[in-house]
Amino acid sequence: MLKTRLAGALALTTLAMPLAFTAPAASAAPVEISFARFFGACEGDYGTSTDVPAARGECGIITTLINKFNADNKGEIVVKPQIMEWNTYYDQLTARIVGHDVPTVAVMHMAQLGDYVNRKVVLPLNDLFKEAGIDAGDFTDAATNGVTVNGKIYALPWDTHSWLWHYNVGLMKKAGLTDADGNPVVPKSLDELKAQAKKFKEATGKPLIAISTTQDVAGPARNFYTLLYQQGGTVFPDGPDGDANFSSPEAKKALQVWADLYKDGDLTPALDYEGATAGFINGNAGVYICGTWLIDSYMEAAAKKDTGLSDGYYVTAFPTLLGKPAIWADGHSWVLLKGGLNDDNKAATLKFLKYLYDNNLQWARTGHLSIRKSVIDSAAFQDLPFRKNIKIISEVARTLPAGTPRQFGIQQIVGEEFDNVMLTGKSVDDALADMQGRVNELVSAAR
Fold first, then answer.
1. Residue 27: what pLDDT?
2. Number of domain units in the chain
């Protein structure tokens, strides 16, 4: 359905290129830039704030950044956010393309980018970056790979978000699993992890690790991908145009590890995302495996006296348990869709994209990694809490090939079968066979 609707949008939506780069007239009404995004709504806290350094969390920072841009360009340019729900965002975006209601700038996961590029509804940005003064050479390898399809850049990368281990320092200390500096001892192998889990349960009566396995497919898929990648495994051994392969020894090992940990009681049972995220604050496990976006929120919780994190919070990149360092990653980016950019708004839009590029450090305060090498290497970034612990992600981040179709659909299937192993007793072999059959059917229909 997505392919059909987007193909129809392509036939109905066109953009003449090149466009003249002319500055908006000072005497004219402000140039409007429609800005489609998720990240929540927080007008009550940040609706009029322009104090970007004081903003907290994804919503607070993006809202304040837009407020500041509008204030600095008052009378000339106005960015008008169009806030959508995360789980229905792409359905809404597709419907808007079909209905000729195309936003000027839209957020897009890098994992989704290939689908929209393949249907020719996203503009290439290499030349536009040069006009705007955006240095694509400063993008990290992870960011460059995430926004490049068939040799062209199709989005302004905004972050690399990845998989972390969030630690409850108080519980880890109770279990005797902290070092001389009081920081958690990070396991360096699967055997070391299992030994820690046993010791933790004996000391606290709790499972060492919290994960979500109920009504959540994203987290389980990311857990599977990470251990697959650490063994040098891949889902598409012949590239994005080939078949998926889940029958490899690496795939079986990746899923079996999680099945064994769950069976042994070392993972929290049957928690959804909200339950796992809130439960970690309340002290239900020593480690919560989740994303970069939680760092700021958990630091805030740890600063309070009445939470399960009051005795300390710590975070690291997902440790290397099998083979070599590799961690699942994705990223947010900003795209220009055909029909959203025109002669009247081009100069203003490029100025806005350059503003976002220049303020990438502010967004990195959420916990996401910056997409700029110069920012990651700066003292300002490395002085942010725990950033030295997670800097490695920009070097070892792994994704499906950018041109792989239906990546969110693949994630759905992998996560569902992962959950089936944990919650219904489905065998690892059966789950992997169903992953392979279902994924190949999905991508075949999309090609």
1. 55
2. 2
